[in-house]
Write a structure and sequence with these properties.
Blueprint (H helix, E strand, L loop, with lengths): L5 E12 L16 E4 L2 H6 L3 H26 L4 H4 L3 H15 L3 H27 L11 H39 L6 E9 L2
Parallel strand pairs: 1-3
Antiparallel strand pairs: 1-2
Length: 197
Amino acid sequence: MRYTFKPDDCMVISIPLGNLRNMRDGQLMPEKFTCVFKDTYKVFLKGRPKELGAAQLSIGVFVICIGSLITLEYGLSHLVYTLPSALFIASGILTFAAGSSPFMPVVKLSFIFNIISLFWSIAAIVLCALLNEGSWDWYNSTEYNTRRNMLVGLKVVIGVLCGLELILALILIYWESKAVCRSHFNTLPLITIKQEV
């Protein structure tokens, strides 16, 4: 016969039974026993979503600020990998909101935005490395070398910030999956009966 229901670790009920030798009538079952309920939202809060959301928001603001500096100095083509980093700001706000209130649609929306942020951070790192504003190698002047070194340095900073966003998105996806991806059906509490010796 197949089991229709399986116990999971969401609710654990422990009932200590009295000693069979020393029991009197009606004293085998205790009046009080323990029940531990593991709330998935509280498990999500162990991942510190408020702090990580604030870090995501800060990274998004820094990337857009540095991208606007690059755009003003080196051309509009650099908006391709800096302007969509507003997604980091949106996912940071949603993650902070998900950590502030146990409203599950906000947690689910934050989960979706963090998945998109993960892929965008990978794409931004690749685009940042591939896109280059012209070739200054044929200029031997120190001004062009300085401008090229400045562009490379700012792109490295953007790449590092996008790498940090990638790590933050991975951590948040892990903790939010514990709150969002859970089984709803065919689960029962795990009941353990302990007998005193």
